[in-house]
Design a protein that fits this description.
Strand order of the largest sheet: 2-8-7-6-5-3-4
Number of strands: 12
Strand content: 5-15%
Distance between the termini: 37 Å
Largest sheet: 7 strands, mixed
Number of helices: 13
Structural class: alpha/beta
Length: about 400
């Protein structure tokens, strides 16, 4: 009986898209050609230099635990990357290597959130953020945001929603599911608003590197005391390797290291050795070519969906998602996603997975398939709209 399980477990919601993914897999097993636009995973395999570095690490016997904070040479490489990309001097001692970006979020939420306390989060936003807070007996105070603020928290929203139990805010730039960015001035404004209230600023920079026509600013350019979550999954294409990092203020590192020792001992050793190849010029060249390909996909899919009648009020500047309003078609977003899957074999994600604010009439498209697949998907969706009776 689930009633005998913990309240925290029962309070954490499943991904609604997983039911659609399971059905998509069933349809594929029956021979249907399903186009997957629902899962936020790049379609590219890990770049060859990274794979080769991982294979070399295994051959050399690098299969033991590392220190809880991670390989010193990888932390130094990440610090060097901040110097190269953002002109920031980050002490490698402030970098902790984690099992995916999720591991970084687990450390930050465990350190900063006491039971009953909460962070402000934009709604819509990535669902695991609020679920991790529940896991540590804290909570997410979801702040409804729309196109008028580009789906991001602002200093004014912080002021309006802050209360006696607030201890910080978590923002994402680029954001999932909307792809919007916070520029340097906006990050500085949020930092000032939170510092005035004694709160912490935590920034998810997991999609840094995947921006189009602009570069994402790191919060560390304006606030050296902020906590930064990042990952090797998206830009670096290492989803299955489960590797991320956290940059924290120097004073927080001993406590975070203690938590890491107890929560997961260390991040995967082979993945850490493989990730050393991420920062080599040849690898970065491959990754930049992939970024250009994602830009081409966005530039095709965005106008194509708008032409069909989807409402996309804000052009995404990063990540690989389009968050679209289906109000023009009527009906419920989950039913809409079911219809497109069952009739046209196109899998997309319902807005319910990203919060509560207007979630029932939004869907997310992930442009993680090549252009021919996206073109076919648009044709199928256009046909599906003709049979949709919302």
């Amino acid at each position: 009986m689930t009633s005998s399980y913990s309240a925290r477990s029962r309070a954490i919601e499943p991904f609604h898209v997983m039911a659609l993914l399971a059905r998509a897999n069933e349809l594929q097993a029956l021979g249907r050609d399903v186009i997957h636009l629902e899962i936020g995973e790049p379609d590219f395999t890990t770049a060859a230099p990274i794979v080769a570095a991982g294979q070399a690490a295994l051959a050399a016997g690098h299969t033991r635990y590392t220190a809880a904070r991670g390989l010193p040479q990888l932390r130094e490489a990440i610090a060097g990357f901040y110097k190269q990309r953002y002109q920031l001097s980050i002490d490698p001692e402030r970098v902790l290597i984690t099992p995916g970006g999720s591991g970084a979020l687990l450390l930050a939420s465990s350190l900063l959130v006491d039971p009953g306390k909460h962070w402000l989060l934009a709604d819509p936003g990535y669902p695991c953020n609020r679920h991790f807070l529940r896991l540590v007996e804290g909570a997410a105070q979801l702040v409804p945001v729309g196109a008028d603020v580009r789906y991001q928290l602002t200093p004014d929203l912080v002021e309006r929603h802050w209360d006696q139990d607030s201890v910080g805010a978590l923002v994402a730039s680029p954001a999932n599911p909307t792809g919007t960015l916070l520029n340097r001035d906006e990050l500085a404004g949020l930092s000032a608003a939170l510092k005035a209230r004694g709160g912490h600023l935590v920034v998810d920079e997991i999609y840094h590197g995947l921006t189009y026509g602009t570069d994402a600013a790191s919060v560390l350019e304006v606030d050296d005391s902020a906590f930064v979550l990042n990952s090797f999954s998206k830009y670096f294409g290492m989803t299955g390797w489960r590797l991320g990092w956290l940059v924290a203020p120097e004073v927080a590192v001993p406590e975070l290291e203690k938590l890491a020792q107890n929560l997961y001992i260390s991040a995967p050793t082979m993945a850490q050795h493989a990730a050393l190849a991420c920062f080599e010029p040849a690898t970065l060249g491959i990754l930049e070519a992939r970024r250009a390909e994602f830009a081409r996909r966005r530039d095709f899919l965005l106008p194509a969906l708008r032409e069909l009648g989807f409402g996309i009020a804000v052009e995404p500047e990063g990540a690989f998602y389009l968050y679209a309003d289906i109000s023009a078609f009527g009906g419920d977003a989950f039913a809409f996603c079911q219809h497109m899957l069952e009739t046209e074999f196109v899998a997309i994600t319902p807005g319910l997975d990203f919060g509560r604010h207007q979630a029932g009439h939004h869907v997310r498209f992930a442009y993680t398939q090549d252009l021919p697949q996206l073109e076919a998907a648009v044709e199928r969706i256009a046909r599906g709209l003709q049979s949709w009776q919302g």
